[in-house]
Amino acid sequence: MSRFENRRWVIFPITELSKVDFSKVKETESGLRKSVDNSKTFIKWDGETPSFVSNLSNTEGPYTHSEILTILATDAWTDKTSGI
User: Fold this and answer.
1) From CA 53, how far away is CA 69, in angstroms rounded?
2) What's 7-72's CATH class?
């Protein structure tokens, strides 16, 4: 059993950040990871989907842990030229 079995992730445009209730997710606004082109970010939560998520536009997901790991390994999320 994965320790992230009940955790879900949703990707959405940076422009939607003002709609996020950070008290309901596992991130802080200052600690968000952004896509390489800085157009998208994601949030994660455990259990039921927070109600504000339905107000976000152009979302992708929700994803499981293994699904989000695959997505975050793509060129859209990992800058392979930065040497990090």
Assistant:
1) 21
2) alpha beta
